[in-house]
Amino acid sequence: MMSAVTEQRPTAMQRATQGDADAFAMVLDPLLNPAYRLAAVMLSDRMAAEDAVQEAAVKAWRNLGQLRGDESSLRAWFLSIVANECRMTRRRRWWSVVKLADVEPDRGRAGLSQEATTDLRRAIARLSPDERLPLVLYFYLDLPLDEVARTLRVSPAAAKSRIYRAAQRLRSDLTLEEVS
Amino acid sequence: MTRESFRRDINREFDALSGSPSPALSARVRAALTENRPARIGPPVWMAGVAAAMIALIIVGVLVASNLNRHQTGIVPGTIPSPSSSPVVSARPNATPSAQASPTSPAGRYACGNSAASATNPPLSAFVNAVRTGTHAGYDQVTIQFSNGQPSDVNFDPQSTATFMESPKGQAITLAGQDGILITIKGADGHTQYSGPTDFNTNYPELKEMRQVQDFEGTVQWALGLAHPGCYAYTFLTNPTRLVIYIQQ
Q: Would A102 be classed as within a structural domain?
């Protein structure tokens, strides 16, 4: 089953590179969920996040030649377009504010006090979208450090430093070794 | 707090913030991709630029060289050639009609005057839920998507300036470009389900800017700032319902 999938993907990518929109949609499909989650955290607005993902998909489609068929770089490349689209969305909206989430998170959880949850939430709300980005990529989407770096278009050392700085704003006793 | 519990807690907060994407996202993206065919897939633009520049240099070089040879053969020793005495071969190729943009759009022939469309069974208010722009060979494209059906009336009013009246403020605003088209959508709502940009600085070959100038009392207006007097064509597509406007370049 897995081998069948592995064999299909390059074919879809090749067809996408030749201008097949359906093939590109198929290649992009597994990335829509992480892309949406990234956008939703950066924008704090679920509808705007879906719009950003759609716009990013169209931009990726129109610039697919830049990727030169390198499917292994597709995820980092597409997520960097999504992040950029989120920045543009925020710039375009003159009324742009950091909205609260549409749904309140579950408050009654074991292992974490109400106060600690609120503190963490407030600390996240204080982060700028660009500070949230490395945290989302590394902790939430669970991307390896080198892919975080490619998405941020910086060196792995710089990516690590950005993750550390942002995480430290949420947890002051965090050490650099914990981000590795 | 260990690293793992930190990761767990932060992810829980991110989960609460993002939720899940709507089930329609995948279909929506697919529709947008089908609608926005890439203008060019291949090597990067700079490669094409370099190749074009080299070809132009070679052509110019050949023409200059052939022109020099022609002048040299026309010179009689001991005389000064008159500029008008020898046949002059122009370095430029004969003027041929430049490649014209296709006179038809994906929706048919372009129109340059006012026009209007009406729906037979419109909803009370058609909710705009997405607005997109794009550029393609021969035309720029605007898509206004509705979540619940085609609005009752749409009017297209080309004009010879890019200045529009913002309503209900009554304030004149000038968009990028020299000319414009005002799109008036009656029986529509542009704010309940649409939270995207209301000003697109596109700078496409023809569509320079697009801005929402009214979203009030059931009428939504989008103003297009164009580089030249604009000819356009439009169509309503379904699934999802969307008004697609093609502006001739």
A: no
Best interface-test mutation with B: which of A32, A132, A179 has the largest number of B CBs within 10 A?
A32
Residue A128 inside a domain? The answer is yes
Overall pTM surpassing 0.90 (yes/no): no
User: Do A9 and A50 belong to one domain?
Assistant: yes
Name, in order, each residue with C-beta under 8 angstroms of A68's C-beta and a sequence gap of 6 or more.
none
Predicted-complex ipTM score: 0.77
> What is the Cα–Cα distance from B128 to B219, expressed in whole angstroms?
11
Q: Which of A17, A44, A61 is the best substitution to test chain B (most B C-beta atoms within 10 A)?
A: A61
**What is the SS3 assignment for B181?**
strand
In the structure encoding, which two tokens stand for residue A21, read together? 């929109």
What is the CATH number for A146?
Answer: 1.10.10.10
Show the domain range for A123. Answer: 113-180
Considering the domain architecture, whether residues A7 and A60 belong to the same structural domain is answered as yes
Q: How far is B6 from chain A (nearest CA, A)?
A: 8
Tell which A residues from 103 to 122 touch B, by Cβ distance under 8 Å: 103-106, 109, 111-112, 116-117, 120-121
Question: What's the pLDDT at B167?
Answer: 84
